Each structure stands twice: as structure tokens, then as C-alpha cells.
Amino acid sequence: MNSIKGVLLINLGTPLSPSTSDVRTYLKEFLLDERVIDINPISRNLLVRGIIAPFRAPKSAAIYKKVWTEKGSPLMVITQNVQALLVQKLGAEYVVDMAMRYQEPTIEAALERLYKANISELTVIPLFPQYASASTGSVIEKVMALMSKWQYHPNLKIINNFYNHPLYIKAVCEKAKPFLDKDFDHVLFSFHGLPVRQLFKSNPNGHCKDDGKCCLSLTNNNIHCYSAQCFETARLLAETLNITKDMYTVCFQSRLGKEKWTTPFAPDVLKELAGQGKKKILAFSPAFVSDCLETLYEIVHEFDEDFKAAGGEKVQLVPCVNEHPIWIEALENMVKS
């Protein structure tokens, strides 16, 4: 008798629609997570409910409308497609479900379906290449809290990062191939930013330094550091694509508030590159596996506009791995290895 094995893919989340009310609901659930805005609960509630959600929701809704498709949110559609492709890849021995950390489909509902399928083992894959407490850590905490109520527990495997997985790196490089014969002056590896304090909190041995230079190369001391994993992903991609060190820059985007975040900050880098006479930039976003607001709008439009305003000509996005066959193969490998 063959036992059934479960797989749960979990992405960040998306509003149910690009309406202001749905975006406000999404922002509140997302930003009220104590791992995302890790400050005093009272301050967090006042900040999110009183300032961020009311004032940011209309602006964010307008941006969501620009990237929304006939089928819905790009992130949702892509994640559903990846689920379907992985079902085909793994076969009848596996039950593959998907969920979002925030909004729907919920992790709770997906786990309930897997529990009722009487699975013998479960592989949970948070769809974030680099580990961060605010993303992967939040997903794991939620999954463990829900599974703690189960009366039986299958063998459990959680993939907490895949920033250096050979097949993930290969998939990103394959997505870049159509652009590599173009005449680009520089390559940008742009990752989602984090408050520096979160790097310190995730560092158990005190290795993390305030100057950020400890992140530039991966060692045993910083192997769990989000920033160090980002720099390592960029190094592996550049090495695979034969991009020399002087031809690429690592930066961070999506900063919120005035406190210290991971650096260098993408708009500053774009301005500096334009000042150096660079005209055409090829931009990767290897912190995401699915194209979303941060890639389809922030890089495609905001980066491009900032760069042109500083004297540049074009910022070209390399799409995320999305539904690429090698990315599906990477997921299969994570499940079976």
C-alpha cells in the first residue's frame, strides 16, 4: 500500500481585489504581524491602523490596479500555476496544496485539507529563497501553531531557504538568457529590504556588525543572515552568468519608514550608476519567485523612472522564475531530496 505524501507551497499573499477596502484589509493583516513590524504591540497597532493602512491603502490600490490581470493578482495566478505544474511533476503519490501567509487561500484551510488526506509526510515550502524572520519565519510559526492542534503528526520537513539551490540558480539564469545579448552597461541584483534590527535579532552569535560589511560574504558565522544569503545568491548568479564583480551591484528595495534598513538602497544605487554614465541596467529580483507588485511595478516603473530622471535610459527587469520548468524541477528536488 502506497502512502500519500503532502506538499504545501506558501507565498506571501495578495489583496482579494485591487479595491481600496481589500488592499486596506490585506495591509492590516500583513503589517500587524509581529514579525513584520517587530515593535511594541500598542505602537504597532497605532502605526498600522491609524497611519499606514488608512493613508497607504488608496495609493497601493491604484498601483495594484496597474498590475492586476483578467485572472486576478499576478502573484496568485503564478502560484496556482506552479501548484498545478508540481502536481503533474510529482504524480499521484503526492497531494500538493498552496496557501498565502496573508489573506486567502489560508494556511489553515490548506493544512485542514492535507490533514483530511491522511498524509504520511508533509513538506512545507515557504516560497522565499532567502530566510528572513518576517517572511519564512512568520510562515513557519503559523504552520507550527496550527499543526500543534493535530491529533496525529506526519513526518514533517520544512524548506527554510533555497538561496543557493543549484536548480533555483539555474532557473533564474535561464530567465535571464533572452536579455544577455542586449547591450547593458550594468547588472543590478535587487532584493527586498529589511530593518537592520531584524538582522541583529536573527543573529544568535553576535557576529552581525552595524557597518553591514559582515554580510558581503557567506561564512559559518552569518549563514542564517538574510543579507548574507542575498549577497551569496547574487554571487552565484553572477558566477554562473560570467558577470564580473565590477559589472554588478547588490542593492535593496521597498524601504518603509526612516529607521536604518539594509543597504545600499536601490534608488541611491540607480542615481549613482546614472552619474557614472551608465545608460542601460539589467535588473534581477532574486528575493521573489513570482512576479508581483515589487517587480512588475517597483522595478519596471519606479526604478526605470528614477534612473531616467538621473540621466539613464532604461532599467530592464529579468522576470522571476514564475512557472519555468527548471523552477518546477527545483521544487520537485526539494520535496524528494
Short structural description:
The protein is α/β, with parallel strands linked by helices. It has helices at residues 20-31, 41-67, 74-90, 107-116, 133-147, 166-176, 196-201, 226-240, 266-275, 293-309, 325-336; strands at residues 5-13, 94-102, 121-126, 155-158, 186-192, 248-253, 280-284, 314-317. The protein starts with a strand and ends with a helix.
Word description of this protein:
- Helix 5 links the parallel strand 3 and strand 4.
- Helix 1 crosses helix 2, helix 6 crosses helix 8 and helix 9 packs parallel to helix 10.
- The strands form two sheets. Strands 2-1-3-4 form a four-stranded parallel sheet, with helices on both faces. A four-stranded parallel sheet has the order 6-5-7-8, with helices on both faces.
- The radius of gyration is 20 Å and the shape is globular.
- The model has no long low-confidence stretch (mean pLDDT 95).
- Helix content is 45%, strand content 15%.
- By secondary structure, the chain is of the alpha/beta class.
SSE topology sketch:
Layout: E1 5-13, H1 20-31, H2 41-67, H3 74-90, E2 94-102, H4 107-116, E3 121-126, H5 133-147, E4 155-158, H6 166-176, E5 186-192, H7 196-201, H8 226-240, E6 248-253, H9 266-275, E7 280-284, H10 293-309, E8 314-317, H11 325-336
Parallel strand pairs: 1-2, 1-3, 3-4, 5-6, 5-7, 7-8
Helix pairs in contact: 1-2, 3-11, 6-8, 6-11, 9-10
